[in-house]
């Protein structure tokens, strides 16, 4: 089964806070960007001064704090507007959400401060207008799910191949340096033609090649260390398009190399971590498994087919025909359609990758590599605290640690925490200020002009006395000369946090609910798996605290079967060799039968 992507999506932002009145903006004519049409962005327009309220006049410090907050909000909106103009809708929505979350999580009652209320109305109205225009052209701020080159190639049919293309590819093959025994035939040429001469094939392979730049150096290093041919990097073209977050909702295969959730691959999977989504650790597991398959089958083409179809299945087909040769099995129709096409499409990708300009990939520019600092920790730390310590958005910290299933690292065990490049020293210096037992809940606040103990305490919902005590200060002390404060945020009781639900009332939106419970908009969406839009139906139950993750299912079912039975009988869901279509259901059985075969080989060894 070809992997489907579950791309994390941010919802559109609507103005539905109590007492807020939309200021309806309109966008200009649409222009075609990369993802969807993005209309011209107008800068937020000043709103009239609110009428004086019968409320205490804010102090100078409070006014300064609100002004600084508005400056931060405007900066985040402006950054999102730049991304929006460029057609980078996913990046734009992150910035727009950040602008709203800055106000929601500020600790200031938005409705009680006219200036902040006006700013909130203005920003949300502007974003809502842009979202509505984007929705007319596509999915709004939600990027379209992109299929992999392998999925795109499922529609390929074998017809007469242009002999000129075969001759050209054969000539290119003669000058291709590869540590695989590459070959050219009509099957491979058919996929070269699809990727080079069709829009769908060209675009999906181009985007896959571009993404490979993020991880190419790491993958090449791992393959070299494990003694595996370098060109096996291109199995990721068929598996995930080099997307480490790829997940198949049907088979539950996940990660860049699409491992199933059960199976002994040396990858940790528990309530906190799923290392199938760790780019480097999953690549190590992939390289070692490919080497194991080659040792069992003695041929890299058969090993590639076994990665798709299962080693036990390939061995039976070899025994049945007497041919330990992939192309003989292909010609004799012993392989399922997906596996038969799997190897030639990867060979086509290898040949094109080695000669991109000859096949029309002149516009290929690799994404810059993902650079990180990695620190190994053995304590639990909240990613929001990590964000505070290194001064990076929490979304960036999450993206650098895709194997984490929740917002905290696992307790009492080693974990490789990935940080933005160049921040490891800063992290070490600042985290030392937080008691180790409190790193899963406390926060770190960099003091800015206008901050007071009272304002910081309100922002994080702690008492002034607790904040002062944690920083060895008196409650009346001035913090103007203090660089940063450790904030003793209490750890939410697990039994309450994991089951806390709210029943949506008429007139509620995600924005108003997030504001009511003091959580961010992005958290509320993530906890409730809300893809797009913030309208919620009355009566729906929403999680308003972090839910407990589902625990993994261990694969002890192999243990009750003998080695012989495991070798001869694949797990349920095996595909028939008479399969004639490449379906998503077939990919799920691939990894299931693969793991069964792998388990039996280890028992025999």
Explain briefly what this protein structure is:
The chain is mainly alpha-helical and 605 residues long. It has helices spanning 60-85, 89-104, 114-137, 149-152, 163-174, 186-197, 199-226, 235-239, 279-297, 300-309, 311-321, 326-331, 337-354, 383-390, 394-400, 424-431, 453-460, 464-470, 494-497, 510-517, 521-528, 563-568, 584-604, and strands at 372-377, 415-420, 443-446, 484-487, 501-503, 541-543. Residues 1-39, 46-53, 494-499 and 549-605 have low confidence and may be disordered.
How does this structure look, described?
The chain is mainly α and 605 residues long. Among the domains are: 1-145, no CATH class; 149-367 and 556-604, Lysozyme (Orthogonal Bundle), CATH 1.10.530. Helices cover 46% and strands 4% of the residues. It is built from 23 helices and six strands. It has helices at 60-85, 89-104, 114-137, 149-152, 163-174, 186-197, 199-226, 235-239, 279-297, 300-309, 311-321, 326-331, 337-354, 383-390, 394-400, 424-431, 453-460, 464-470, 494-497, 510-517, 521-528, 563-568, 584-604; strands at residues 372-377, 415-420, 443-446, 484-487, 501-503, 541-543. The strands form three sheets. It has a two-stranded antiparallel ribbon. Strands 3-4 form a two-stranded antiparallel sheet. The chain has a two-stranded antiparallel ribbon with strand order 5-6. Helix 1 packs parallel to helix 3. Residues 1-39, 46-53, 494-499 and 549-605 have low confidence and may be disordered.
């Amino acid at each position: 089964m070809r992997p489907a992507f579950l791309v994390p999506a941010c919802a559109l932002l609507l103005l539905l806070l109590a007492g807020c009145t939309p200021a309806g903006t309109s966008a200009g004519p649409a222009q075609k960007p990369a993802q969807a049409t993005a209309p011209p962005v107008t800068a937020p327009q000043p709103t009239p001064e609110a009428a004086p309220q019968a409320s205490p006049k804010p102090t100078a410090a409070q006014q300064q704090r609100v002004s600084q907050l508005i400056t931060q909000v405007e900066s985040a909106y402006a950054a999102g507007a730049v991304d929006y103009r460029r057609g980078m809708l996913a990046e734009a929505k992150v910035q727009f959400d950040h602008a709203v979350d800055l106000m929601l999580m500020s600790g200031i009652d938005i409705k009680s401060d006219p200036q902040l209320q006006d700013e909130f109305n203005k920003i949300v109205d502007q974003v809502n207008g842009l979202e509505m225009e984007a929705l007319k052209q596509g999915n709004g701020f939600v990027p379209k799910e992109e299929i992999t080159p392998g999925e795109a190639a499922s529609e390929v049919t074998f017809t007469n191949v242009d002999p000129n293309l075969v001759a050209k590819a054969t000539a290119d093959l003669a000058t291709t340096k590869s540590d695989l025994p590459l070959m050219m035939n009509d099957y491979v040429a058919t996929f070269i033609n699809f990727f080079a001469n069709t829009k769908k094939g060209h675009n999906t392979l181009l985007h896959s090649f571009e993404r490979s730049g993020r991880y190419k150096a790491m993958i090449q290093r791992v393959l070299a260390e494990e003694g595996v041919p370098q060109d096996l990097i291109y199995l990721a073209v068929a598996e995930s398009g080099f997307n480490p977050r790829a997940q198949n909702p049907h088979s539950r295969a996940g990660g860049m190399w699409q491992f199933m959730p059960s199976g002994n691959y040396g990858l940790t999977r528990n309530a906190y971590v799923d290392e199938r989504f760790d780019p480097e650790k999953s690549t190590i597991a992939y390289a070692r498994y490919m080497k194991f398959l080659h040792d069992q089958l003695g041929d890299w083409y058969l090993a590639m087919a076994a990665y798709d179809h299962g080693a036990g299945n390939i061995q039976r087909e070899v025994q049945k025909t007497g041919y330990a040769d992939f192309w003989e099995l292909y010609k004799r129709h012993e392989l399922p359609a997906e596996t038969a096409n799997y190897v030639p499409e990867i060979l086509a990708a290898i040949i094109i990758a080695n000669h991109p300009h000859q096949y029309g990939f002149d516009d290929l520019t690799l994404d810059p590599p993902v650079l990180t600092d990695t620190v190994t920790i053995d304590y639990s730390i909240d990613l929001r605290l990590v964000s505070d310590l290194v001064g990076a958005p929490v979304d960036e910290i999450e993206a650098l640690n895709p194997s984490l299933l929740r917002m905290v690292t696992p307790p009492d065990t080693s974990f490789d925490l990935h940080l933005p490049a160049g921040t490891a020293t800063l992290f070490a210096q600042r985290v030392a200020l937080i008691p180790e037992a409190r790193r899963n809940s406390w926060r770190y606040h960099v003091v800015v002009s206008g901050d007071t103990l009272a304002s910081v305490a309100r922002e994080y919902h702690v008492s002034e006395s607790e904040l002062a005590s944690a920083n060895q200060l008196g409650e009346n002390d001035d913090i103007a000369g203090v660089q940063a404060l450790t904030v003793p945020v209490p750890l939410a009781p697990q039994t309450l946090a994991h089951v806390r639900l709210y029943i949506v009332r008429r007139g509620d939106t995600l924005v108003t609910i997030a504001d009511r419970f003091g959580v961010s908009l992005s958290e509320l969406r993530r906890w409730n798996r809300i893809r797009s839009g913030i309208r919620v139906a009355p009566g729906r139950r929403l999680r308003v605290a972090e839910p407990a993750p589902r625990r993994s299912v261990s694969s002890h079912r192999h243990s009750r079967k003998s080695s012989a039975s495991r070798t001869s009988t694949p797990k349920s869901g095996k595909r028939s060799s008479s399969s004639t279509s490449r379906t998503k259901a077939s990919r799920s059985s691939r990894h299931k039968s693969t793991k069964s075969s792998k388990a039996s080989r280890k028992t025999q060894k």
